[in-house]
Sequence to fold (376 residues):
Amino acid sequence: MAETSIEAYLRVAAMAIALYDALWTIPAEISLYREQTSLRRMTRACILFIILRYTSIIVIVVSNVGFFGEIFTVSACHKYYLVAPAFKGVQLTVSQIIMAIRTVAIARQTRWAVRTVSILLVITVTIEFFSNIWARVPFQEPKGVQFANCTSGNVKSLKIAWVNYLAAILYDITCLGIATGFIIGQRRMQPKQNFDGLSKMLLQQGILYFIFITAVNLLNLVLYATGSEKFQTSGATLGYAFTWILSQRLLIHLQEFRTTIRSREQPPSANNNPPISGFFNASHTKAIRDDVELGVHVTIEENVKVDYDQDIAGGLVSPHRITAARIEKEHRRREDRARKAEAEQPEDEGFDEFDDGSNISGRGWEVSSVGKVFSP
Fold:
């Protein structure tokens, strides 16, 4: 009876935490939906968010209906007891995919990082599904009655569900190590460049995610490895809730960061432009230079609208890949054209020049070269 009370308290606490976070993130969810151009062209970030959010809600509800609801006959329980583990496998898969994409993007999609994380992802997801489903048996309490609750676990002679949590811990350690190594290495290679905003956010998120999710995974590992059948799932709801909350925060925080950066980079006239399509599309405007060498005020403004989908943590992906080299080449071409236009301006009009040529005053020429919108 004491074990049942402890399990009930843990489940209720986990459901309260999950409910609070679900309500707290509704504005972020609405904002994410508004960023989509259509239901047929939803970004991968939005798709992962939806699957993670509602799969997590389903698995929490199904698991706790089975535990608290004394409404199952023996035959009904045999049909029901694997529903929660199956949805748990889907939730874990989405969470691992989010972590994989984040890690690869931080690693700038280097070949070895992509291969390492991809292979590790396939192995981890396979182990998690197998250990969650195989050797599971239904468990009902109280016994000897027509209607009872319905949970599941491993028999003492064949405990394997704990392997799921061991695989998840090893996967998280590897992904965190790769991402942290690249962030620290980037700062060492370019110490003068300001990486405080994004790099600090990514590093803190990775560490906090690892600490909380590893603590919950260790708790469940111990419970499944040493607990009785009816007590093995005591911390399962905590695992569902924290996996949902932490993985979801990775998406929300990164979206908020990108929205802030995009709003800072937009020119004042951008309000008159049509809305930007896509979740991670961007419009960049640069003021290139002010040349006062000859007393001629030259302003070259270049507007470049790039239409692309970005990865969850950066990088350029389909449908088009626009490299920095191409943008820089286009920028140099427009700058050269502006210099030629400047050289062709008459010297006896619009300003006065002193005899000694030491100073030039008066009204300067303004040369503006506005780049056209282009696509790769």
